[in-house]
Hints:
Layout: E1 4-6, H1 8-16, E2 21-25, H2 27-30, E3 38-42, E4 45-48, E5 50-53, E6 58-62, E7 69-75, E8 91-98, H3 102-110, E9 122-127, E10 141-143, E11 154-160, E12 165-172, E13 184-185, E14 190-193, E15 195-198, E16 201-204, H4 205-217, E17 223-227, E18 230-234, E19 236-240, E20 245-252, E21 258-260, H5 267-276, E22 281-288, H6 289-294, E23 306-309, E24 312-314, E25 316-318, E26 322-329
Parallel strand pairs: 2-3, 8-9, 22-23
Antiparallel strand pairs: 1-6, 2-6, 3-10, 4-5, 4-23, 7-11, 8-11, 9-24, 12-26, 13-15, 14-20, 15-16, 17-18, 17-21, 19-20, 22-26, 24-25
Amino acid sequence: MENKLYTKQEVIDFINNGRxxxxxxxxxxxxxxxxxxxxxxxxxxxxxSVGKLDEDKIFVDDFTLVAQSCKLAVYDExxxxxxxxxxxxxxxxxxxxxxxxxxxxxxxxNALSYEGMFDNPVVGYVAATKFEDYxxxxxxxxxxxxxxxxxxxxxxxxxxxxxxxxARAEIVNFDTIDENTPTIVFPKDGFVQSDCxxxxxxxxxxxxxxxxxxxxxxxxxxxxTSQNGALINRDVKIVDTKKGEVTFFSPVYAGxxxxxxxxxxxxxSMFNNTLSSKRCDVLTCFSCVSYYSGGNFDGRAIxxxxxxxxxxxxxxxxxxxVVTLEIDKVK
Length: 331
């Protein structure tokens, strides 16, 4: 079954037929669905042949053909550390998390240290609203366990693969490091940062963004770092010059070397060139509202359908990244 937008009645029929799915849509679209083999989260940004916002239909990522079996779970901040160790020997894990919830912060700060985190691919997204409604409306997650929308629970689906298949998570960042910008290093992990060093000298990150970055670029931008060769973005959420603090959409890690992102990327071409070159089965594709808006995707064609949300999950919480779940045949 093709991953794309379907009517609510079509999705109800899919659930009743036992299909294994990740469902994404508005609060209204996801409310009142029957119990079944599915989890979900809110967002209104999709690529369904072209980029579009849709409040009535539901985007379906269908895993039925590869799922030998599946099981569902929900976690809060007290037990999210168990997310990976409860999976199958051979399979993958799909998760949706509501932004700004306690489970969101706990997962973001600690995910890479969880037991079994790299035994199977762990992929998913951070539930979203319309970007202009952020802070006014609360994104939700939902599970086929009871069909109840939640602003505090991570919903998780464990999928077992047959022995002749193996899952792989790929992380792609279309941004690059602006080598002409200073190196920024923080002394502690966390979403909220103040003290730092800039080119080795003590500084305040809020002052740097307000007095140096904003006048030069006309606004704030992302920071970027290399983690074992993978480029990871840290999106700026709030710059509070009174408190001397910057809040990010995902946690900054102590000791990592950050730069500013190089501006001027052609995201639409990058998406199509990268995603069209993939030679294996791409089961699902998650990306960020920042790409959607920054690339002016609305109404424009992209070669791979997918969900755009307030963050991606590829073993850890990511921002402004593409995460794909891909399936290979085992030789």
